[in-house]
Write a structure and sequence with these properties.
The complex is a heterotrimer of chains A (250), B (612) and C (275).
Chain A: E1 2-12, E2 15-25, H1 31-41, E3 61-64, E4 67-70, E5 85-88, E6 95-97, E7 100-101, H2 104-112, H3 131-141, H4 148-152, H5 154-157, H6 168-178, H7 188-192, H8 205-209, H9 216-233, H10 235-246
Helix pairs in contact in A: 3-6, 6-9
Chain B: E1 8-17, H1 21-32, E2 37-40, E3 57-58, H2 70-80, H3 87-106, E4 121-122, E5 132-133, H4 139-152, E6 157-160, E7 163-171, E8 174-182, E9 188-198, H5 219-227, E10 231-232, E11 237-244, H6 258-261, E12 265-267, H7 281-284, H8 291-298, H9 313-325, E13 335-338, H10 345-351, H11 353-362, E14 372-381, E15 384-385, E16 399-401, H12 418-440, H13 449-464, H14 471-485, H15 492-510, H16 522-546, E17 569-575, E18 581-587, H17 593-600, H18 603-606
Parallel strand pairs in B: 1-2, 1-9, 2-6, 9-16
Antiparallel strand pairs in B: 3-5, 4-5, 7-8, 8-9, 10-15, 10-17, 11-14, 12-13, 13-14, 17-18
Helix pairs in contact in B: 1-4, 1-12, 2-3, 3-12, 5-16, 10-11, 14-15, 14-16, 15-16
Chain C: H1 24-46, E1 51-52, E2 55-56, H2 97-109, H3 112-121, H4 152-172, E3 175-176, E4 179-180, H5 184-200, H6 204-212, H7 221-237, H8 240-262
Antiparallel strand pairs in C: 1-2, 3-4
Classes of the chains: A alpha+beta (250), B alpha+beta (612), C mainly alpha (275).
């Protein structure tokens, strides 16, 4: 058993401070385990959000030494033994208490994305899709909604533009629908306007923090930007579509 | 915000408690039937334990093997459940599961595909044919996310997140709503409803080695029990054979059965593939008896029989335990689960990405190179709230239960993959049941504020009392009692000693004290959950003491075999007139002749059967 | 910690709790890009020493006009449009490079990788992940002034032409005055064209156009072909950043190599025994 030094933010929207804790730790422990020890023995009312402890539910999002991370997947052995581990709530959303923030805004964004609208089933009552067709979508569907990407995205975190951008998580959500081989809805206008794909300046921090290693920017946001370009900004494409319309092509 | 002590009130037609797979599916059904539906969950939406389900959902779609059909699924389920399942529920499940899977696809789930573009199905323990529709090894996430996305677009579903229901409120016999507290701001809220559906999951947190998260504190069991409903089969607690055993902080976390379904084998410290030594009589004719045959099966030979690693979970869990007892365990007290030497690295990463990730990051083990260390972990409650087979209604009018918190579908042991389909089939049926109930009612039930206030006071007393025990330490104590006395193998003296300890613990729980204010106070909620956990634990221990035989997930050292007479009864737990816990045997009704015939028929008779 | 922010987060440019060396990336990017811009601008202004033996500097390819009086200039017959036009204003340098560099320049300027790189290291929006960005009145992302970035695919079309031109230059470098052979410079040109090809065909816009725009890859044979190309583009796209840097450094190196030989400061090893 060794002791590790922690600085944990305690407080609510009214204010607060870092509290220091010494914690007995064992081999193989992660930051969340240490926080649970603090909670059980030193601060019963320490607020932490957590569920699965295995990186699958995306509840224990926080900032550890300044980096947005899942506390359950961050091993103490990643830090030198005499290193003080600083734990803070995520920044992009309003603080409730200690390490817990109010992430309700994210759930509102999901409602703004047009839901899955499949084409009719085949004559045999089945939907047929090939594995090759769904691999892109399956990558996006790995998302565990930890909202670390939302937290690190400077548009939401620092620029205060939640009014104009739904954030990386919902770009990925929209991409998973828009690239779905069965889906028939058109989300491109919404992506350009309300959801604000143009607000992203592809600085890729979302991809860096994604615990599921989804290539949010390269595989999700940029392809969506390209789709928006084809519809709205590419003069040749616009001309082609106009001509097609004029001559009644299909 | 206005006065924080003011109590909010919501009125819904139906209140669904719990937003895992079952709760979401029930809420969607209610919404589709036109009801204003409230969906309450202790965590954020989409974080329920359903996300941890890995392998897949069982449905006899026959995409991989055309010989499969609902009757064989039904037969597998009954045999897996040691014939203690409710016949009708197992039938409904087997018949309706394929439609539920297709419906999920219609709502946007993206299952892995076969070569011809259909939903791919994988092999799993106890299932005769590849039957589990899946998405790699993260099927639960796919299921919950699909339902969640579908639900948030229903106008008449209101989701109340991070809201903990502390008690049900009744109007006479029937249910009329519930009292809850917002975890975030600590304020109380009344939910008035014509019908309430419980989908609260199990109570695995009463054990120390469990795959369950903090939410699984048996809230539904305790609330239903307190309201006058009965619990059934609660002694059947499934120990999943493969949980992680190291490092200590992740002990118990699930390792999917898909590892074995995709070719993984179990070895002891001597390198022996020991499962061949543990094939029960009942499954001997359907299980490979040599490594050569097991390998042929894996390679797709339809004439070969299944490897013994894919026997039902109770069998495998007990085999691992026996190996460890005999001194042939792995360094941290488990068995070796080896897929590295069986399947190419790339294929492992493709088929089992989250297992690869989980071991790499949490245990620093590369499962494409090294074996995993695994051991049994408390995973699932087969038993739970007793419900009507068709309507899912409990003994309390207007109170329904579905998913893990309901009893009957799985009998003495659940097959892997049957839980996800259970959630969908019975979640939907609970919604249908609530619809029928509401239509038959005259006049809205009255919400009794006196009952609500009593629940509120009980809850706030925990914060207000001057002193008391630390809830976290009490919880640890409870977990140690259950792990030691009501573990994977049980016996009379141990169980009795455990029950005695639980009595003492119960008294301490009544005087538990949480420090701090009501706002997002983990200690306070731990203390509230403790009262549910203690009821759950006591019911499980008492039922386990009464059942004097070994059947499925319930193993008694002092009664080693299955006994015919115990196969005719279910154990029912209820509250007696004096408010004490009563445990009784109840005779099972005669099975419907047709179903009984199917369950006992030979495979050849059922293969390719299309009728019904 | 008197003025600590909610959650322990400090507002303001550059503020962070990170203790790792997050500054290194943006600083190196800043230095690397700046160095290239300085060198490329200098080299472009020279208008000389861009041609030696069978080697043509990629900064000057294709040669539209040639100023024959310049040292190390290409022969006039090599120019697509002949000698330097008389109407060219005298105060502008007579360098054929200016007709060229705007195209790859535009391609790299609007490239999704370089955008990330310079938004971080030059514009500091933000300089690093979870690090406070430069203060601005209201952030608009790429929706207003930066809308031009959406024309990246047009820059791509030109860049693709350049890949072929540069391969053609490398091909020409296998022969000197009609004598087949090769030198180190030939290989330098060949590597240059290849790195540029890897960079260009890993472009996000390219990946979109060749297949990414489809929702179904298996719906017909044509889609299947596009899926194959898309997969290859994806392979390159996953390595877009290393190819962006390698091709950038190599193109600068190629110009420098040819320049030094042309100036007589370096000797090219080749089968022709000197030029």
């Amino acid at each position: 058993m060794a002791e590790r030094h922690f600085k944990v933010w305690r407080g609510d929207a009214g204010g607060g401070q870092f509290e220091e804790y010494e914690v007995e730790v064992e081999d193989g422990m992660v930051v969340l385990d240490a926080l649970h020890r603090i909670q059980a023995h030193q601060a019963n009312d320490l607020a932490i959000r957590w569920n699965c402890k295995a990186g699958k539910c995306g509840s224990c999002s926080m900032e550890i030494n300044g980096k947005p991370k899942l506390a359950c997947m961050n091993r103490l052995s990643d830090y030198p033994e005499d290193f003080t581990i600083v734990v803070q709530p995520i920044k992009a959303f309003p603080l409730i208490k200690d390490l817990v923030t109010d992430v309700a805004w994210n759930y509102e964004q999901n409602k703004r994305i047009e839901p899955f609208t499949p084409r009719p089933r085949g004559a045999d009552g089945e939907h047929r899709m090939m594995q090759d067709d769904i691999e892109r979508v399956q990558e996006f569907r790995k998302c565990i909604e930890c909202f670390l990407c939302q937290d690190v995205c400077h548009v939401l975190r620092d620029q205060d533009r939640k009014d104009a951008f739904a954030g990386p998580r919902f770009m990925i959500r929209a991409a998973s629908l828009d690239m779905h081989p069965l889906d028939t809805a058109d989300r491109i206008p919404a992506l350009k306007e309300e959801l604000g794909v143009g607000m992203c300046n592809i600085t890729k921090c979302c991809t860096e923090v994604c615990p599921e290693h989804i290539k949010i920017t390269d595989n999700g946001i940029i392809p969506l930007k390209e789709r928006v370009v084809s519809r709205y900004y590419d003069p040749l494409m616009i001309l082609l579509r106009k001509l097609k319309g004029l001559f009644g092509g299909t | 915000m206005d006065d924080p002590s003011e109590i909010q009130t919501f009125e819904h037609d139906v209140l669904v408690i719990g937003a895992g797979g079952a709760g979401l599916r029930a809420a969607i059904e209610c919404a589709k039937l036109g009801y204003d539906t409230g969906l309450v969950c202790k965590s954020l939406l989409g974080k329920a334990h359903t996300v941890m389900a890995e392998g897949g959902m069982a449905a006899a779609m026959g995409n991989m093997d055309e010989r499969d059909n609902w009757k064989i699924h039904f037969r597998d389920t009954m045999r897996g459940g040691k014939f203690l399942n409710q016949w009708r529920m197992a039938e409904l499940h087997a018949r309706q599961a394929p439609d539920r899977v297709r419906e999920l696809e219609e709502w946007g789930a993206v299952f892995d595909r076969t070569e011809t573009g259909l939903i791919h199905q994988r092999n799993f323990g106890g299932h005769r044919y590849p039957r589990l529709a899946h998405v790699g090894d993260r099927t639960g996430l796919e299921l919950i996310r699909t339902l969640q996305d579908h639900a948030v677009h229903q106008d008449n579903i209101t989701v109340h997140m991070e809201c903990k229901v502390v008690d049900l409120v009744k109007d006479g016999d029937r249910v009329s709503g519930a009292v809850a507290v917002w975890r975030d701001w600590g304020r109380f809220v009344n939910f008035k409803a014509k019908a309430v559906i419980l989908a609260t999951g199990g109570g695995g947190r009463a054990w120390s080695v469990t795959s369950n998260s903090w939410e699984y504190s048996g809230d539904g069991y305790a609330m239903a029990y307190a309201a006058g409903a009965e619990l059934m089969d609660i002694e059947f607690t499934q120990f999943h054979p493969t949980g992680m055993v190291w490092p200590p902080s992740v002990k118990g976390i699930l390792v999917t059965e898909g590892v074995r379904g995709d070719g993984g084998i179990l070895k002891n410290s001597e390198g022996e593939r020991f499962m061949f030594n543990y094939i029960p009589e009942r499954f001997a004719s359907e299980t490979a008896d040599s490594e050569e045959e097991a390998n042929r099966w894996l390679a797709g030979d339809k004439a070969a029989r299944r490897p013994p690693e894919l026997l039902t979970r109770d069998v495998v869990a007990k085999a691992i335990r026996a190996e460890v007892e005999a001194g042939r365990g792995s360094p941290h007290g488990g068995a070796f689960l080896d897929i590295a030497s069986r399947v190419p690295a790339e294929e492992i990463k493709r088929k089992l990405p989250s297992m690869y990730h989980q071991f790499k990051e949490l245990a620093q083990v590369d499962i494409t190179q090294q074996p995993m260390e695994v051991g049994p972990t408390l995973h699932y409650f087969m038993g739970g709230i007793r419900v009507d087979h068709d309507s899912q209604e409990t003994a309390v009018p207007g109170l329904f239960a579905c998913g893990e918190c309901a009893a009957g579908m799985h009998g003495a042991n659940r097959l892997g993959g049957n839980s996800l389909s259970d959630l969908l089939v019975f979640g939907r049926l609970a919604g249908v049941g609530a619809d029928a109930y509401i239509k038959a009612q005259t006049g809205a039930p009255v919400f009794d504020q006196v009952q609500a206030d009593a629940a509120l006071k009980r809850t706030t007393d925990i914060l207000n009392r001057e002193e008391g025990t630390n809830p976290f330490l009490l919880h640890e104590e409870l977990q140690e009692i259950m792990q030691e006395h009501v573990g994977i193998v049980r016996e009379k003296a141990e169980l009795e000693a455990g029950i005695e300890k639980l009595q003492a613990l119960k008294l301490a729980v009544e005087k538990v004290k949480a420090a701090g204010a009501s706002q997002y106070n983990a200690g306070w909620h731990e203390a509230i959950d403790l009262s549910s956990l203690v009821i759950t634990a006591e019911a499980a221990a008492r039922a386990a003491l009464l059942r004097e035989e070994s059947r499925g997930a319930h193993t008694r050292l002092d009664f080693e075999d299955e006994r015919e007479e115990w196969g005719q009864v279910n154990i029912v737990v209820g509250k007696d007139g004096a408010g004490e816990m009563s445990v009784r045997k109840e005779q099972r009704p005669e099975p419907p002749t047709e179903l009984s015939g199917i369950a006992r028929a030979s495979l050849e008779d059922l293969e390719g059967s299309t009728d019904g | 910690m008197a003025d600590i922010g909610i959650g322990g987060h400090q507002p303001g440019f550059g503020s962070t709790v990170r203790t790792d060396s997050w500054k290194r990336g943006p600083v190196l990017t800043f230095l690397g890009l700046s160095a290239f811009i300085v060198y490329a601008t200098w080299a472009a202004f020279q208008g000389a020493h861009y041609y030696v033996g069978p080697y043509l500097s990629p900064f000057y390819s294709p040669v539209l006009f040639v100023e024959p009086s310049a040292l190390g200039a290409a022969p006039v017959e090599h120019a697509w449009l002949g000698a330097w036009p008389a109407w060219w204003p005298a105060f502008l340098p007579h360098s054929p490079s200016f007709f060229i560099l705007i195209f790859p320049g535009a391609f790299r300027l609007t490239c999704y990788y370089y955008r990330k790189a310079y938004y971080r290291s030059f514009a500091t929006t933000p300089p690093g992940c979870a690090v406070g960005p430069r203060a601005q009145k209201k952030y608009h992302g790429e929706t207003r002034l930066l809308l031009f970035q959406n024309l990246h695919r047009y820059a791509l079309y030109f860049a693709i032409i350049f890949v072929f031109i540069l391969y053609y230059d490398a091909f020409l470098a296998f022969s000197y005055h009609g004598v087949p052979g090769l030198g180190v410079g030939t290989l330098v040109l060949l590597v240059n064209a290849t790195l540029l090809a890897c960079y260009t065909f890993g472009c996000h816009s390219f990946r979109h156009l060749v297949g990414g725009r489809l929702d179904c890859f298996s719906c017909n044979a044509a889609c299947g072909v596009q899926h194959g190309i898309w997969k290859k583009a994806t392979f390159l796209n996953e390595r877009h950043m290393p190819f962006a840097w390698l091709s950038l450094c190599w193109v600068g190196f190629t110009d420098l190599y040819i320049r030094l030989i042309s100036m007589g400061l370096l000797t090219d090893l080749n089968t022709w025994e000197g030029f």
